[in-house]
Amino acid sequence: MHRPTLIEFPPPPPGKTGWPWTEESSQLPETMPGGSPWPHISIVTPSFNQAQFIEETIRSVLMQGYPNLEYIIIDGGSIDGSIEIIKKYEPWMAYWVSERDQGQSHAINKGIQRSKGDILFWLNADDLCMPDAFRLVAQAFHIDPALSLVIGQAHIIDEQSQIIGDLHSRFTSWDELVATPRNLIRQVSTFFARRLFDELGMIDESLHIALDTELLIRFTQFHVPLILDDYLTAYRTHKNAKSFVQIVKGYEEADRVRGKYIPNKKLASTYRTRSASKWLGLSSDDRLTLIDRTKCMLRAIQNQPLILFSRRFLSCSKALSMAILRTAISTVVTR
């Protein structure tokens, strides 16, 4: 793939500056120090109606200055202008397609199966790679050829690409990973050795939200990841993000996934207690509908019945009851 520079790239939209609009990573030499070729990195972007963000995503990949890169976009038939944006950058892509698919998991698998790289990474169409990310990952894999996963840190960005927080990854043990309801390692900053997919299989296409949770649990059961302190990517949060719009469904999928892998009763009990606390906390999130908040409270009780007798449960149930009452009064008044 010919490596683009800012001079030959399509100009950014008006008002767009900084990375990756008017700034780029340094162009890396054709070989690594010592003369070895740079590892072949394949990036797969699953896309569907993300015209608002996809151009920034594409540029954050192509502006890396990396000499051995394959970029693939699998679009699910977008009708919002995404295709016109993708076509602008077609000369620097290995492959792209826009056609109906069976969801994100299916799209990513299609891209992985078409790719040829030794290192694989999927980047959603609203997220970003940070400058020099591919160099850092390639050097890590080169230093230790036995590595199977390299995981960095990730920023959280808003709709205007401003950093508003961080998603940290850490790995102490596989037992701790599988028995913790929240994600201790983040797919958004995880690069995979290709052989993992040959050895342990592809993404589970029956999952729509917790696909990354299942994959990382399955892969790290047999392969310990290297955790970098460097920020490799940025995860975008916005009102239409799938991870929030379908948050309850995602947590339900994650419960099923972890239940499948947890190896013994003791660890299962630990997980149920932690999961109940997570569900109870979610029941207090006033961004959710009252129906979803009620579902969350019932899930907490289902996972750990004794939570009924905790002070926190009483506080959360009181808050939910008051929210239901306010809604009922408001409905009556507006009739």
Explain how this protein is built:
- The chain is α/β, with parallel strands linked by helices and 335 residues long.
- It folds into 2 domains: 41-244, Spore Coat Polysaccharide Biosynthesis Protein SpsA, Chain A (Alpha-Beta Complex), CATH 3.90.550.10; 264-334.
- Helices cover 40% and strands 16% of the residues.
- It has helices at residues 54-62, 82-88, 104-114, 133-143, 174-178, 194-200, 211-220, 242-245, 247-261, 265-282, 290-303, 311-334; strands at 41-47, 69-75, 95-98, 119-122, 128-129, 149-157, 163-167, 190-193, 226-236.
- Strands 1, 2, 3, 4, 5, 6, 7, 8 and 9 form a 9-stranded mixed sheet that branches.
- Strand 6 and strand 7 form a beta hairpin.
Summarize the entry for a quick read.
The protein is of the alpha/beta class.
Helix share, percent: 40-55%
**CATH level-four homologous superfamily name of the largest domain:** Spore Coat Polysaccharide Biosynthesis Protein SpsA, Chain A
CATH topology of the largest domain: Spore Coat Polysaccharide Biosynthesis Protein SpsA, Chain A
Q: How many structural domains in the coordinates?
A: 2
Structural class: alpha/beta
Q: What's the overall average pLDDT, rounded?
A: 94
What is the rounded Rg? Answer: 22 Å
Largest sheet: 9 strands, mixed
Counting DSSP E segments of at least 2 residues, the number of strands comes to: 9
Q: What proportion of the residues form beta strands (DSSP E)?
A: 15-25%
Oligomer: single chain
The second-level CATH architecture of the largest domain is Alpha-Beta Complex
CATH class descriptor of the largest domain = Alpha Beta
Low-confidence spans: none
**What is the tally of helical segments?**
12
Which word captures the global form?
Answer: globular
Distance between the termini: 63 Å
Order of helices and strands: EHEHEHEEHEEHEHHEHHHHH
